[in-house]
Specification:
The protein is an all-alpha fold and 98 residues long. The chain has 3 helices and no strands.
Length: 98
């Protein structure tokens, strides 16, 4: 998972990769399935690996590795809650009583 400083670095690379895909599609009049997305997002995958040490292979998964998207760890099992406002743990069923 990426903290906000790491996310800032990765999101800049992801944005550039996305711009390149859009430009390639426009310039070459290609449908998305004809664009080699894997090669266009290679810089983002490499950036993620530099930041985390984990070799991710799916560029779409990178958008979900931002820790601020998730809540604090469950006080019972330690799994991160699904959102910062979550009231129920999906793993152990712990419930926040508010």
């Amino acid at each position: 998972m990426l903290d906000e400083n790491e996310w800032k670095q990765l999101s800049a690379v992801l944005s550039e990769c996305t711009r390149e895909v859009k430009t390639a599609r426009k310039d070459e009049a290609l449908p998305l399935e004809k664009v080699n997305v894997a090669s266009r997002f290679k810089p983002a995958l490499e950036c993620f690996e530099r930041l985390t040490g984990f070799k991710e292979t799916n560029p779409n998964a990178l958008w979900h590795h931002r820790i601020s998207l998730y809540g604090p760890p469950c006080p019972e099992c330690g799994l991160p809650l699904r959102t910062p406002r979550a009231k129920l743990c999906p793993k152990c069923g712990w419930s926040r009583n508010e």
